[in-house]
Every structure is written in C-alpha cells, then in structure tokens.
Amino acid sequence: MLKRLAIKQPFKTALAPILGLVFKKASEFLTFLFHFSLRYGCFWLCDTKTF
Predict the structure, then answer these.
(1) Which domain of life is it from (predicted)?
(2) In whole angstroms, what is the distance from residue 4 CA to residue 11 CA?
(3) What whole-number distance in Å separates Cα of residue 33 and Cα of residue 20?
(4) Would the pTM of this model clear 0.85, i.e. be above it?
C-alpha cells in the first residue's frame, strides 16, 4: 500500500503544474473566443437579419 502511494505521489506533483498550465491556456483561449464571437457574431447576426 505504501509503495503504491509512493509511486502515485510524484506523478501527481508532476501532473499538477501541467494541468494548471493547460487550464490557464484553455481559459485564455476561451475568453479570446468569447470576445471574438461577441464582436463578430453581432455583425454576423445583423447581416443575417437584413437579408
């Protein structure tokens, strides 16, 4: 049981910063997509309404 925990622990500590970095990049990308879609989605909606 202790050996199994000893193997899992470094894996968790190695995974934590990677997951944090991935999550940060994903949130940045999502906010960028959100603003991009807000800016251009409104124009697109207005264009489709005029036709």
Answers:
(1) Bacteria
(2) 11
(3) 20
(4) no
Cα–Cα distances (Å) from 19 to 6, 42, 50, in that order, read 20, 34, 45
Q: How far apart are CA 48 and CA 34, in angstroms?
A: 20
Regions of the chain where pLDDT drops below 70:
1-7, 42-51
**Of the candidates 31, 12, 30, the residue with the CA atom closest to the CA atom of residue 20:** 12
**Cα–Cα distance, 11 to 34 (Å, whole number):** 34
The residue to which tokens 């251009």 are assigned: 40
